[in-house]
UniProtKB/TrEMBL annotation:
Residues 258-481 form the UvrC family homology region profile domain. This is UvrABC system protein C. CDD domains: GIY-YIG_UvrC_Cho. Interacts with UvrB in an incision complex. Residues 20-98 form the GIY-YIG domain. The UvrABC repair system catalyzes the recognition and processing of DNA lesions. UvrC both incises the 5' and 3' sides of the lesion. The N-terminal half is responsible for the 3' incision and the C-terminal half is responsible for the 5' incision.
Length: 613
């Protein structure tokens, strides 16, 4: 007897029960999977458009055919509905919605707080440290360039606190005129705070106010016959004016983003030009997911709600398309920002030129992305042929090991799919408990930690597992998969060719999908499959090296004195100053250590024992 089919969803009957109030609706299929989230100024009218229209676009019709349940949430205003829709799309990621795939945190300039000598620094991630955050900036380059300007103009320190506390003499930044050396007291707290205040004003866009203050201070210094100070202030004012002339964009608002969208071959590109304080911070491209046929206005609406409601909003958004919800969006962003935010789609003069620039950028980036996608697709198809797979792989993972003579080993795992690297799935593993320099043990540990989750039913399973190495490393991978009971994964070793020349790599096949015994392949430098494998391998290598370097730098920044109980920042600084650095502390005896203020015999003995094992 056939199992009873679930009754089909009666959309017309459901629509007759709906209110005409604004709200959000959600379409679900028979398995309970969320298909689509939408907002409506009139729920009955909007939801009814799915079930009462005689004809609709094929892809929308395909979605409607899957609808088994509709849920609604009534809101007080259409603006609330727009906000709730954006939140649900970002958190639930429905299959048929336009989704901004932008999981990166954006960089900021961080000014530390609660210190006599605050520091300026690059920051990315949670903003939970005391101090101020300026940004977000569109790229790491924009932050680095701004920090470099801060060093030249205001000489505020940018070094890490551990480095700052342990200095006994000025560093190179002081020697080249980019720091005032507060670490060794070459500037008073009051003068340093004045520099910090001017840096804050500059980052807030009040550069003219900074110039006025410095010019007034220059005149006062000149009247007081402090000519050396007056000359320094004169040079600082000149540098600020020159900076304004070089970086100011004629016609740019003090606070403005210019946004354009282009759609082609089922792919969209949104290009944003960022202007802050009349200075161009650069451009950034976004490639949202387009499951349904969409027009640029729809994509821009979803982009604005998903992007700006989590970030500081500029005073002005210049749009390449007029939006149906433009007034509602402006009101919503105004509430979010706590000040007026304007959305403009019809502009002239300089703003029209900026918009044309954004549109050209969007078209060029989209064309390049489509070409890259086609090339990548051809490489995946060729890899299927070379490895004799039943279908092109959907997920490739590659592992690599990095260390310096066995020190602080790091393993990397990078992931590639048909659209390129999937950086949100990248992983690093800090390796511990092995013989230094034992790459086989390091690989075994990293693979075990990665595939234990797969064995437990968690995490994605790759179709192809690449190992940077030959048969020995491949054997480690096979042992791990066998121990964990994980099967159905093609394991491929990527061994360097003669002379380590690119294009001559050997692929060491552990087992073929066809069941043939493992063997070696030499695809050759013209093989698209080898180009793909080499690109994935090189990315794993880069990711491993960068992780190892970060781990090594962190370890070297840490002072051995930090591990001694009873040694805080002041005593550590006193010791380093007394002995001229860590080398002097290590060579000092117990009696010599006791000569430093705050170090008694018991503490001196602990210090000596800690430093000499």
């Amino acid at each position: 007897m056939q199992p009873a089919q679930p009754p089909s969803f009666d959309g017309k009957a459901f629509v007759s029960t709906l209110t005409s109030a604004p709200g959000v609706y959600r379409h679900f299929d028979a398995a309970g999977e969320l298909l689509y989230v939408g907002k409506a100024g009139n729920l009955r009218k909007r939801v009814g458009s799915y079930f009462l229209k005689p004809r609709m676009e094929p892809r929308i019709a395909a979605m409607v055919a899957q609808i088994a349940r509709v849920e609604i949430t009534v809101t007080r205003t259409e603006g609330e509905a727009l906000l709730l829709e954006s939140q649900l799309i970002k958190s639930l990621k429905p299959r048929y919605n336009i989704l901004l795939r932008d999981d990166k945190s954006y960089p900021y300039i961080y000014l530390s707080g609660g210190e006599d000598y605050p520091r300026l620094a690059f920051h990315r991630g949670a903003k939970n440290l005391p101090g101020r955050y300026f940004g977000p900036y569109p790229s790491t380059y924009a932050v680095r360039e701004s920090l470099s300007l801060m060093q030249k103009l205001f000489k505020v320190r940018q070094c890490e606190d551990s480095y700052f506390r342990n200095r006994s003499r000025p560093c190179l930044q002081y020697q080249i005129g980019r720091c005032s050396a507060p670490c060794v007291g070459l500037i008073s707290v009051e003068d340093y705070r004045s520099d910090v205040r001017h840096a804050e004003m500059f980052l807030e866009g009040r550069s003219n106010a900074v110039i006025d203050e410095l010019a007034e201070a220059m005149e006062q210094a000149s009247k007081a016959l402090q000519f050396e100070r007056a000359a320094k202030l004169r040079d600082q004012v000149a540098a600020l004016r020159q900076l304004q002339a070089q970086h100011h964009v004629q016609g740019a608002s003090a606070d403005m983003d210019v946004i354009a969208c282009r759609i082609e071959s089922g792919m969209a590109c949104i290009s944003v030009l960022f202007f802050r304080n009349g200075i161009s911070l650069g451009t950034r491209d976004f490639f949202p997911r387009l499951p349904l046929d969409a027009v640029p206005a729809d994509v821009l609406t979803q982009f604005i709600t998903q992007y700006y409601l989590d970030r500081p909003v500029p005073r002005e958004l210049i749009l390449g398309e007029a939006l149906a919800d433009q007034a509602i969006l402006a009101e919503l962003l105004t509430q979010h920002a706590g000040r007026a935010v304007e959305l403009k789609s019809s502009v002239r003069g300089d703003r029209a030129q900026f918009l044309q620039m954004a549109e050209r950028n969007a078209q060029a980036s989209l064309t390049a992305r489509l070409a890259s996608r086609q090339t990548l697709g051809a490489r995946f198809d060729d890899l299927q042929k070379v490895l004799e797979l039943p279908a092109p792989p959907r997920r490739i993972e590659c592992f690599d090991i990095s260390h310096t003579m066995g020190e602080l080993t790091v393993a990397s795992c990078v992931v590639f799919g048909p659209e390129g690297p999937e950086k949100s799935h990248y992983r690093r593993f800090n390796i511990a408990g092995i013989t230094p320099g034992d790459d086989y043990a390091a690989m075994h540990q990293a693979l075990t930690r990665r595939f234990r989750k797969v064995a437990e039913g968690e995490g994605a399973r790759p179709d192809v597992l690449l190992i940077d190495g030959g048969s020995g490393q491949v054997a480690q991978a096979l042992d791990v998969l066998k121990e964990l009971g994980v099967s159905g994964i093609e394991v491929i070793g990527v061994a360097k060719g003669p002379g380590r020349r690119a294009g001559e790599e050997t692929l060491v096949l552990a087992r073929m999908a066809s069941g043939a015994p493992g063997r070696e392949l030499h695809p050759g430098s013209s093989s698209p499959a080898l180009h793909l494998v080499a690109a994935v391998r090189d990315e794993a290598h880069r990711f491993a090296i960068s992780g190892h370097r970060k781990r090594r730098e962190k370890a070297r920044e840490r002072s051995a004195l930090e591990d001694v109980p009873g040694i805080g920042a002041r005593r550590r600084s006193a010791l380093l100053k007394a002995f001229g650095g860590m080398q002097g502390v290590e060579s000092a005896g117990i009696e010599e250590l006791m000569q430093v203020k705050g170090i008694d015999r018991g503490l001196a003995e602990r210090i000596y024992a800690s430093l000499h094992g």
